[in-house]
Amino acid sequence: MSTDKIITLVAFAFYLGLMIIIGIFYSKKTKNNEDYFLGGRNLGGWTAALSAQASDMSGWLLMGLPGAIYLAGSGEVWIAIGLLIGTILNWFIVSSRLRKYTIVAGNSLTIPSFFENRYHDKKGVIKVVAAIIIAVFFAVYTASAFSSGAKLFSVLFGDSIDNAYTVGLAIAAVVILVYTLLGGFKAVCTTDFIQGMLMLVAILAVPIVAYMTMTWDQGFGTALLSHQLPTHEITDAEGFVSLFTDGKGDPVKATSVISSLAWGLGYFGMPHIIIRFMAIKNETEVKKSRKIAIVWVILSLSAACFVGLVARGALNKSLFSLDADGNPIDGSENAFIELIRQVFSGNGFLVFIGGIFLCGILAAIMSTADSQLLVTSSAISEDLFKGVIKKDASEKKALMVGRIAVLAVAVIAFIIALDPNSSVMALVKDAWAGFGAAFGPVVLLALFWKRSNLAGAVAGMATGALTVIIWDYIPLIDGAKLCDTTELYSLAVGFPLALAVNVIVSLITKKPSKQIYDEFDSIKKVDI
What we know:
This protein has 21 helices and 4 strands. The protein has about 525 residues and is mainly alpha-helical.
């Protein structure tokens, strides 16, 4: 193994060791379920903001999104625009009211328990449905994070270590499991804070340094268009950097723009993001978190898009290749990795700095996977085991079940991610649509529409989840899936359909009780 790779491994080992130490530290402070799943509702503004956004922007921020732009140009930026709009609306519309309502609704610790308490579901139907949806879609989502880690390790050490993809997959899974199982919510949020800062520094510094290196002798403003892109298989450089054309120079389709913007709808239903709102200390910290989070997202999304463009112009190698059988291999999701390797090389110090920036990819991966595993744990232990199967279970036993659930979901995610050809962006896309369509409409109507009832919520939730599954996975038209024949993102279909079903079923069934109405009206008086 070369000296450069050994230095990179040292940087990785230092970073991963720090994450495990944090897990051990917080394991001593975790005394009950509220500590483990919500950190005692005591998050400060900075921690809440960076934890929410770091857990949101997984490996796809540093791999999937830059890769999509490297491959198809700025026409893919519409995804980032949709996500930015969704982030802003989520923090302004949902954060404060959800924090208050979960207190009124029986001091709810999880999203499924909030649904149950909000609708006074004595039989626990909505809690069970929600918990099952969480377990299914988070297995896929967590697989995307594991796959990102495996690809990172494979690209860096594939020529030095046998089965590097599988080894990297195992390392990513084990480290994430250790500090999640040990420390719970506080450990996850603390590591997310560190990871969020590291992600931001890496995603800002790398493309700026690369662009300055690329344009040093060519004219800062014109190098990308005039000199770099035309020499990298781009015949229409201006079209490649346009929001309204794709990588081939054709106009971006309306269905593509609608699908990309629809990503923003997913935020209202992301359990691992909105659970942070429930844990913020008070209203003052909510307002502070809102500002920090929005600035972080603007900077990180803009920089991620810039990475894709700069990598296409600056890299001295193509990321497209053929395998041994002559089949095309798309390596575009490695754009950020290769950019770091090319720019931060030449001496030990630069390589170590590059290694730290590569840890930014680990940070993105781990900050999302740990949050997803923790939410899955809470759904299974609090909502299924303690809420339905064994209601008199002790907190100690419930915590044990939750930790077993984390391990089980991690194993399933590991198996899903074993395919080295799996696309990080595709896995994230499917899981994001599932949660957004199933939970998004329910969350919004539960918070802001008094007439919403249990029947409508369950019907809407089931409709959203099934629509995504049918749209993305079941071939219905001449052996093709609807997502392929329509070229429309399943979330753009599932969200409005689930919303409509929720409203219609609520209106044609019995209205909520006076007690539910009174709780709804009392939110305005809650002071946190």
